[in-house]
């Protein structure tokens, strides 16, 4: 059965509520498979979808309903479509042959297979003692490559194989067994230079051991060359019949086009090296080791390099150009990205005059990185092995590149102003003994992962700036675009002296002054940088880049790393030629996949543009009531910063925000200062501040262990793990007791009372901090020094702030996972289960953050009492624990949710806990299409406003920098982030649509270009001219077909994208516009490289 299932995604105009996500099912039929009613497949989805075209294709007797109510399988035909089957549960019949086919084969059929296979070692049941062609008696020969394993006499065998000289034949020996022989041994000769069946009067025999390398092995053949007057040379005679000679002088062997094609695609796709391929050809000849096999490995490897090179030249059209291969310009043979802007090809001729609102679409977005797995060993014959196409493809012209590199060997290493990057630290320390290269650097387009022409080259010693400068500038040498975005994992350092460094490079690489470069850092690498780099180098806050992440090189390296072993042992020229070939193949696969990848990007962009517009609109409307003037200020500030990053960044929070880490650091600094002054307590090695920090750390461990015990199912393994954790925790508590006794002697009587109860588990031990309930205000000041009380107050405040930040983070994660789950649930029950597990884990972390905050606030309330601070660190109610764009379920929604969960088989206690708010108030996402009234759009929960303690205490404000401005700053940051998400999603929608247009336009241009090549090259024979013309017209036809196929497939979704974009531009009527859009069905392959998307949320 075909494993690549197809499904239909409906681009709807209304959104589905989160609480419905587990109650509905979608059924589908895999195209090309015959599925009976008993074999109906069911997968979970978040919306019922009717796929009418597939319904029409099914047999009426076996048809089933697509919009079936919730049950284990769809309703059987005898039930009415609108009836609720209740608890009807139909179990599909199972078949062992389909569930475990190999098990049945093993038990019932393998003996039969073995005997039938052994039968082929003899002459077989169909042999009647006569020649299968002329009926002569006692035939003794058969061919293993011809159909039917039929027996022939010698004459018929030679006649049949006159044009099949590379088949394997066997001879029946003395009525006992088949013995291998060859057509050459049977006197078959191959005449070259004439049509089939015509002998040459002036023939000359080839080498007596002429070897042909074919896909089925190595063959000795008898070859006769034509020596008639005017006949072509021997190389041409061999190539006329599809044999590639291994020598251009006196060829004694050749490789067939078939074996070269097979190896080429196998090497590119499966990364099988030439040595392994040749070994397999040898094994096909003889696996016993008894025969002498000709050694043509070196010839085969030479021919493979020639084949790669000629194929690259052929596909780039150099055979049609009058100057031929010699006239190839740098990078001309590279497969370029047709979705990126190319001047004169796929962008308007007047693009340079485009206004600012359109000019950003003509930005080239690149990314580069180094790969140190691609080492290259120095080989003795490197000087005698130049590349066949130096600089023709994706690699640079290494001769010029290496000559220039020598001049920069002594360039000084720059000092890092950010974190200590490995790329800079190892630039001059990489081990290079015995190596010609320690790795490679490469430049690719960031949005489509296609390697740039002349953008890949060797690194001589680490990731030096000269190498990366050269590769980057070489990749854009022929680009005339005004705006370029370049992503690099150490861009913050690389850019510092970039413009001064390039002045030392050759003039053809020096960049024009009018070009604007923007430097960015890939999303995955950015967290390793300093805080000051975040906003400035983040793609998410950069205009005109859409949803790109800059991590394209990492995905490209995952393919190229497989080649590292074989490439490292190649000579210099062979390595660069092979690298070029693989780069072009990688680019071509990405080009072919544009059909699906761009379609899925557009579907995702349509969805996200609406989702993030809703989120920003809801946030903006909620804030606009009380913060209208601030919003206008924020808007002006963020626009100004986007134009000039040197201005104050609206995404930065004040450094005075209270966090646990900062508070611990400050307390540690106080302890150090006391130690220097000699005023620190000598009662214990651990300071008083350290004692409080340790106690609160143990408190977190107690809370974690309690949650572990509560969720444990009582298995032996779980109980063992719990006991181990209790032992570790008890030891830590005892050490804490020693420190407490030393610093607070008055507490010893309480310690003796608490520790005397041996029935209490370690996770329930009271830690006897100043905020414990057993100490009232008067007793607390008697037992504990003021230093300990003050330290706990500061730490509890920081703990509460950290818990709120963690709670906000987990709520964002819950929203993302819920949306992701709605897209993914249709795949399988296993996928649904994994997402459900992930949701449960996030819910548990939300509860943990809630409990930590409540504990911190409760303890802080005991220590400080009521005050201004309680207006910031408020009491946390269940209805407060919701996302920015979530609201509490209405009563009727709770009833629907309960019914859906019961139908889905959920546990009743869990359902009650969800609806009763045990896990937090039950929420659903806000829907602009439904929740349009003010009552349905509640104010944002206060937890999104607070990032640090707001206090009127001047001493605390002076010490911690806490102020009311921090709340405004936190609101500003959240507002700017929501705006950035909406802007990037809208840009992504515009960019993907533009990339589709460019790709189609490139196909049109390329088709015309191939037509224009016809007749350019005049120095050819008539039959060569016919081949040149045929190839050019064929390529033009294929480009036209590709462009037409992309147009037909993309057109409906492109139209929907334009409608959505237009609706979002009309902000006043956006909701009405979106709700008026009709359903759109899009056919997608779920098993493609890019994850599927669902546009039902529009």
UniProtKB/TrEMBL annotation:
Q: Which UniProt keywords apply?
A: Membrane, Transmembrane, Transmembrane helix
Domain of life of the organism encoding this protein:
Eukaryota
Taxonomic lineage is:
Eukaryota, Fungi, Dikarya, Basidiomycota, Agaricomycotina
A Pfam family (short name) is KDZ
- Keyword check for Transmembrane, yes or no: yes
Regions that span the bilayer? 470-491
In this chain the CxC2-like cysteine cluster KDZ transposase-associated domain maps to 183-289
Name of the protein in its database record: CxC2-like cysteine cluster KDZ transposase-associated domain-containing protein
